[in-house]
């Protein structure tokens, strides 16, 4: 069912992109066949151009004894493959919004991520255009400042990355190095007889959510749970213009710094790296 066929969406003005900036939490997604999900933890952080979105199902196994990618076991990987997460840039044609995914934890579907939005009281409704669904969204941070985003390309791998900030919260996305050549879902890719090392590399796409504190950028939730309670701490290079560095873990757990070329920035660098902002409800 397209948005033009849904009486509930008729006569309702679409919000502007500036109306969407900040952090959103989802309470429901439902499909025409009656399937619905009201239990997954969903965080969507939107700036005026870039966005990052992380969706994690319930029944998460314990990761207490996992400190790096190479310590993930197949039971962990099967749950990790159920997650969804993506990042990119938003576009608006006056009726529909399109979330143009440059990074996706799941294989590409072949359909654009396009939907119509409208408000019903304090709740925002999203209705898919090409894939029929309804989502209920709730604002977790109102009028966050600063609200900025940076698009990145890793040196030397070339893989994309994105950092977005709204107030004192941030989200970060980093693509995997291994290309997913077929569609379907990530669980189908990892449920194979491939070597564990290869399956771990399929999972190595990071979507993280965190808070900016006086001592740094602390990751609180991540598609790679061993990254939680680690610092991202992006800093610009004193030697190379338009270069950013982030703290990270190598697959074996060694502390490393990733080097990034800044390809696009929406907002001011001083806003991205300053301390202060709105206190979120997360």
Question: Outline of this structure?
Answer:
With 282 residues, the protein is mainly beta. It has helices at residues 17-20, 74-80, 186-190, 196-203, 269-273; strands at 22-30, 36-37, 41-46, 50-56, 84-92, 97-104, 114-120, 123-128, 134-139, 147-155, 160-166, 169-174, 206-213, 216-222, 235-236, 243-249, 255-266.
Key traits:
282 residues, mainly beta, Lipocalin, eight-stranded antiparallel beta sheet
Characterise the protein shown here.
- There is one protein chain.
- The chain has 282 residues and is mainly β.
- It has a single domain (9-272), classed as Beta Barrel (Lipocalin).
- It has helices spanning 17-20, 74-80, 186-190, 196-203, 269-273; strands at residues 22-30, 36-37, 41-46, 50-56, 84-92, 97-104, 114-120, 123-128, 134-139, 147-155, 160-166, 169-174, 206-213, 216-222, 235-236, 243-249, 255-266.
List the helices and strands and how they pair.
Elements: H1 17-20, E1 22-30, E2 36-37, E3 41-46, E4 50-56, H2 74-80, E5 84-92, E6 97-104, E7 114-120, E8 123-128, E9 134-139, E10 147-155, E11 160-166, E12 169-174, H3 186-190, H4 196-203, E13 206-213, E14 216-222, E15 235-236, E16 243-249, E17 255-266, H5 269-273
Antiparallel strand pairs: 1-2, 1-3, 1-9, 3-4, 4-5, 5-6, 6-7, 7-8, 8-9, 10-11, 10-17, 11-12, 12-13, 13-14, 15-16, 16-17
